[in-house]
């Protein structure tokens, strides 16, 4: 079976992560999907950025939750990657969904409510998915399994993926307990016996973050369905 390729935070190996530049690159590739992370601004707008704070990826500092969209838009989301990307801004979820309108890739929206609860994040994201009419293209995932369970209850037609880093002995039961449709494990689980067993028993495994071609080949053999990679071009070359 072919291993599906998802661009992690866009084509983040060669473009600044979670920016429109990274998503534009990914949108033109013959890959299966794109993954990105959402937080909520202080004025309630879902924005696409990985960390709770803007410090690592922008020229600003502070928590996303304490800044309005206007304040977030002042920051450069690309200058830390390279000068030529200085004009890149933190995208809103709406801007990213616009960019992928009519494109073939699946969209994995990771709800980053792990540290801060972001009241309204889940509801906002689901409302946007409905507005764009893309419930069948979207996968909602999270390390916050409480939020993921609630998302499944509110939007049963949207696929959910349970993120985890542990080598769980019985991940299938854990996923069933929160109504999750797929397992989104870190690499070690997928390569060990519990991961291989879950795949053999029919679980969909999408594995993060896989940048080493050797690991990708091992995962294909272990029965994983998809990988999240910062280097989609590299993986396309491997499997072509
Ligand atoms: O969704 C897969 C992966 O993105 C989860 O980890 O920290 O890169 O968001 P992280
Ligand atoms: Mg992520």
Automatic annotation (TrEMBL):
One GO BP annotation of this record: lipid metabolic process
Pfam families xrefs: GDPD
Signal sequence coordinates: none
GP-PDE domain span: 3-239
GO molecular function, one term: phosphoric diester hydrolase activity
Name of the protein described by the UniProt record: Glycerophosphoryl diester phosphodiesterase
Lineage of origin: Bacteria, Bacillati, Bacillota, Bacilli, Bacillales
């Amino acid at each position: 079976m072919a291993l599906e390729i998802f661009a992690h935070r866009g084509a983040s190996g060669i473009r600044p992560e979670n920016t429109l530049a990274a998503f534009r690159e990914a949108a033109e590739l013959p890959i299966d999907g794109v993954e990105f992370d959402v937080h909520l601004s202080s004025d309630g707008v879902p924005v696409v950025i990985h960390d709770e704070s803007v410090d690592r990826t922008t020229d600003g500092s502070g928590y996303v939750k304490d800044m309005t969209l206007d304040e977030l838009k002042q920051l450069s989301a690309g200058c830390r990657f390279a000068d030529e990307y200085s004009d890149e801004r933190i995208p809103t979820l709406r801007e990213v969904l616009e960019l992928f309108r009519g494109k073939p890739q699946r969209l994995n929206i990771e709800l980053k409510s792990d540290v801060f609860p972001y009241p309204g994040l889940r509801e906002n994201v689901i409302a946007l998915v409905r507005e764009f009419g893309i419930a069948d293209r979207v996968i909602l995932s999270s390390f916050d399994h409480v939020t993921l369970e609630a998302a499944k209850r509110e939007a049963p037609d949207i696929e959910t993926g349970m993120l985890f880093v542990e080598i769980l002995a019985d991940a299938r039961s854990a996923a069933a307990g929160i109504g999750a449709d797929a397992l989104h494990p870190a690499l070690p689980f997928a390569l060990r016996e519990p991961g291989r067993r879950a795949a053999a028993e029919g679980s969909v495994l999408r594995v993060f973050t896989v940048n080493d071609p050797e690991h990708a080949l091992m995962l294909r053999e272990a029965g994983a369905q998809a990988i999240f990679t910062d280097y989609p071009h590299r993986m396309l070359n491997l499997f072509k």
